[in-house]
Design a protein that fits this description.
Helices cover 48% and strands 9% of the residues. By secondary structure, it is an alpha/beta fold. The longest helix is centred in the middle third of the chain and has 21 residues. It binds magnesium ion. The site of magnesium ion has 9 residues, from loops.
Length: 288
């Protein structure tokens, strides 16, 4: 079915565009150095990128998510969501198209109509989370050790943290905010389901955003993705980052190891173990 194809849309700057040699950039860089010394110093200190998956890695808000999916689906299609597709490791747009197919709905093969349909669905999904903001912390839960692990990782030298998730950005922020986690992340450089790219591509885009913002290079020796599905493990491999898999989702530790995770943890409850593995997988610059 044509609707099964996910369109490439959204804002995306090409990676690898280096303006360091541009005279204007050099002048601006000098100005920043002179006028904003403290900010310049803080940005320059970052040389490790830690990306976290959200659902079933850090927290579980499955009940609210399912209700919001059902509401958004009904509002956009006019039909009830009878069969809910697999959610684990999938983006919001993938879930929507899977739901259309599972519920025997087709909306033609027009790419523009398809994009409009997805845009409407995202809008309804955001509204569905907005009206349920209070329920996120009430009916959901942080997974064992998640807050301590994120807080301790934030204190590691040279580390900036963000998220890589299939959830659309406003709802990802809502989930993190509900549990007081949003302050630990630079959400500008994250990868979200709002951009309909494969997750490995989202990871590369996130590394590019981080590189531009922090004037550093990120790769397999300095970027790590912490997540809970085999799809995430494959995305890290495609995107060029190391992967710490956490067996708190549907996939077992054995399945995650077989998929190629660099390290598999039972959960995040041992904070020292989490930060130790991050230190081992990412380069710690000399003198720190
Ligand atoms: Mg997950």
């Amino acid at each position: 079915m044509p609707l099964g194809r996910i369109g490439f849309s959204g804002n995306f700057r090409k990676p690898g565009v280096n303006c360091a040699s541009c005279p204007v950039s050099r002048v601006r860089s000098l100005a920043v150095l002179l006028v904003e010394p403290r900010r310049r110093c803080a940005i320059g200190a970052v040389d490790r990128l830690v990306l976290w998956n959200i659902d079933l890695t850090l927290l579980d808000v499955g009940r609210v998510s399912r209700d919001a999916y059902a509401d958004a689906f009904r509002r956009v299609t006019g039909r009830p969501l009878v069969s809910l597709p697999q959610l684990a490791g999938r983006s919001d747009s993938e879930i929507f198209f899977d739901a259309l197919a599972l519920n025997d709905l087709a909306f033609g093969s027009d790419q523009i109509a398809e994009d409009e349909l997805v845009a409407r669905y995202f809008w309804e999904l955001e509204a569905g989370f907005s009206t349920r903001q209070g329920q996120l912390a009430q009916s959901g839960q942080l997974l064992p050790g998640a807050r301590a692990a994120v807080a301790a990782t934030a204190d590691l030298p040279g580390v900036v943290q963000s998220v890589l998730t299939g959830t659309i950005r406003p709802n990802a922020v809502a989930k993190l905010h509900a549990f007081g986690l949003d302050r630990f992340f630079d959400l500008e450089i994250g990868g979200y389901g709002s951009d309909a790219y494969p997750r490995g591509t989202l990871l590369m885009m996130s590394m590019t955003r981080a590189a531009e913002k922090y004037a550093a290079r990120f790769g397999a020796d300095s970027a790590v993705y912490i997540a809970d599905t085999r799809r995430d493990v494959e995305a890290a491999s495609v995107g060029g980052a190391r992967c710490i898999a956490v067996a708190t989702g549907r996939d077992t530790a054995a399945e995650l190891a077989e998929a190629g995770a660099d390290v598999v943890l039972t959960d995040l409850s041992d904070t020292g173990q989490v930060t130790g593995v991050i230190d081992r997988l990412t380069r710690v610059p000399a003198g720190r």
